[in-house]
Amino acid sequence: MSESHRKGRRYEYYVASLFAERGYFARRVAGSKGPFDLIAIHPEKREILLIQVKKRGPIRKAEREKLAVFRGEYTVKPVLYVCGTLVEA
Fold first, then answer.
1. Any idea what the Cα angle at residue 15 is, between residues 12 and 17, rounded to 5°?
2. How many domains, the chain?
3. Which residues span the domain enclosing 20?
């Protein structure tokens, strides 16, 4: 793993901790190769944030567009995966 990748990962964990301090359940997306690096859920606000973390800009239009496709309302179903079967919680 390159030094720049390590620094970026550390910064993602740092940003996740900032959201956790504000009451979010915040986690880094493994690999962070998709349109967002973190997911942060605030159960009281009923809010889900998909966060692309940048230590420095600019944020390219293409990156914004990849993230924007997730805008909107979703049905959220808490489920358990037990022995190959999805079970609603």
1. 110
2. 1
3. 3-88
The Cα 36–Cα 30 span in angstroms is: 10
User: CA–CA separation, 51 vs 39, rounded Å?
Assistant: 6
pLDDT at residue 52, rounded to an integer: 92
- Cβ(66)–Cβ(57) under 8 Å? no
Ramachandran assignment for 46, one of left (phi > 0), alpha (psi -120 to 50 degrees), beta (any other): left
10's tokens: 């550390």
Question: Mean pLDDT, to the nearest integer, of 26-52?
Answer: 91
Q: Report the predicted TM-score, pTM, of the whole model to 2 decimal places.
A: 0.84
Cα–Cα distances in angstroms (integers) from residue 26 to residues 37, 44, 45, 47, 71, in the given order? 11, 14, 14, 12, 18
CB 63 within 8 A of CB 52: yes
Give residue 89's pLDDT. Answer: 82
The pLDDT value recorded for residue 24 is 98
Q: Is 50 helix (H, G, I), strand (E, B) or coil?
A: strand
